[in-house]
Amino acid sequence: MTRAGYLCLAVLVLALAALFLWDRWRMRRLLRCLDRMLDEAVRGDFREEAFRETLLSAVETKLAHYLSASAVSAGHIQEERDKIKTLIADISHQTKTPIANVLLYTQLLEERAPEDCRTYTAALGEQARKLRSLIESLVKTSRLEAGVLVLQPRPGPLGPMLEEAVGQLAPKAAEKGLELVLEPAEAEAVFDPKWTAEAVCNLIDNAVKYTPAGRVTVSARAYELFARVDVEDTGPGIPEEELARLFQRFYRGENAAGAEGVGVGLYLVRQIAQGQGGYVKAFSRPGRGAKFSLFLPRNG
Known about the structure:
- The chain has helices spanning 3-43, 55-112, 118-146, 159-175, 193-209, 240-243, 265-275; strands spanning 154-157, 179-182, 188-191, 215-222, 226-233, 279-284, 290-297.
- It is α+β, with helices and mostly antiparallel strands.
- It starts with a helix and ends with a strand.
């Protein structure tokens, strides 16, 4: 190859190198601009800087339109949540007095009605109590779902909360002749004491409700990532095909047909568990009782 050929080759190599470096510089500049745009979008202060017929300008315009639409959508969602909050508050407030009055007048009727009418007044009172329980459960669930009530998990021992929950259900268990046992619980977790107690009470109440004889055992055990609260009974058990549907709203299994309840308790338990970064599971074999396990994170 002649000297002129080598010179041309060198110029070509230099030109390609310069083109490569320029392309890399342009790509880095584009990535820096995109990174800046995304940072501004996260902070909520993104603005279009220029209107040019370039790819970057087109991306800026589309991102601005997307953020604008997202802001409008978020505003609509917040408006809907505010409406739901107001509706829940109205339902909770407006139904308390009428139901309380129905229960009061039913009690008066039971005291003064003839003997042959007391069966009907007792049924009326039972239905009124069932309606009150249903509305209270739905209001609690709706408040959690709508964000009206926010769970506030914090580190702490599970023992005192479990003792309180067992104490609340002990009279009901004793009335049925059931043994309600709380095993020593040294486990700790990150949980909201009030709402976790609500969930555990629902699990114990279900166990007492569907156990005709025997015992209900409450225990807690710590693992590396989760603490597990178990509520185990000696009742008739739950068919395997029903286990996957137990935590659906208003679901009631075949064995629950004659028992009190509206099918919201276990759904509320699941909502409380998920709101704290946990979960709930059910284990059962027909004729060998059932065990419900509430898993709570050990680290926030």
